[in-house]
Amino acid sequence: MNTKQKRNKKQHLIKTYGSKCWWCQEGLPENKLTIDHLVPKSHKGSNSLENLRLACLPCNNDRGNSLYPPKAKPINFPQKYQFLAILLLGSLLKNQIAK
Ligand SMILES: [Zn+2]
Hints:
Bound molecules: zinc ion
Largest sheet: 2 strands, antiparallel
Order of helices and strands: HEEHH
CATH topology: DNA Binding (I), subunit A
CATH class: Mainly Alpha
Shape: elongated
Number of helices: 3
Low-confidence stretches: none
Radius of gyration: 19 Å
Number of domains: 1
Strand order of the largest sheet: 1-2
Mean pLDDT: 86
Number of strands: 2
């Protein structure tokens, strides 16, 4: 793939899957996303769009030439949702005690 083909494929992948990492779902700007081969080139994976996904650098590096997904990255749970989760858990526990 030359640079122009790569850029076109990236644009197409962003339109199809959104501007985020296929593996960890992290939303990233285009320049932070890399093109990842589902079936790596070393395993005779093709450069066709069905075999291409967008990945952040850590996920892409983690996969390397593997056929498997990257190790799961810890989810960054936003603070405000953490607070909600604690509230919810608290009210559930209270209900349990009331019973
Ligand atoms: Zn990722």
